Amino acid sequence: MYPRKKQITKPGRLELLRKRFTYENVIRFLSVREKRNMLIFWTLIAFLLILLTNLFFELRFVQKSYKSTICSNCGLRQEVYTDVLSGFDCKRCGSELGYAMKCSVCQLEFAYIAVPVPDSLSDKDKLKFKIDSMRCPNCDSVNTSRMPAKKNLPLEKIDK
Ligand SMILES: [Zn+2]
Ligand SMILES: [Zn+2]
Fold first, then answer.
1. What's the pLDDT tens digit per position in 92-126?
2. Residues 111, 99: contact at Cβ < 8 Å?
3. What is the domain extent for residue 106?
4. According to a count of CB atoms within 10 Å of the terminal CB, is the N or C end of the chain lower?
């Protein structure tokens, strides 16, 4: 095997950059119209990219998929193919469906119906409210998580 080439570092490069990046130089740079326009142009491009990335992720995450649900009344587990859960009722008893949650402490499987967070709360309290609403109804633990959908439940699958 050949010995690995030693990385050639360029000392002073950063130093040089720092010296050039002074307040006066930035002002001088911005006073040139073409350069200023160029900067505005690239800033706009960057904004556009950020917007597009956001849009892409939003579209990706609200896409329809199988969601594991539990009936809030009779506890029947059902897989629902949807983007948002609201508007679905239990096939057996017609009650509201909640996301299927599992407590990792006592293993209880329960229905979680998303409660709208009051706008009057502060950001910290909003987070607390959200965490509290997902607590295990049996042991009060916050160690709960959404259950993944089982793809092989054809009898309980609802497609709307
Ligand atoms: Zn039910
Ligand atoms: Zn529990």
1. 999 999 999 999 999 999 999 988 899 999 999 99
2. yes
3. 65-159
4. N
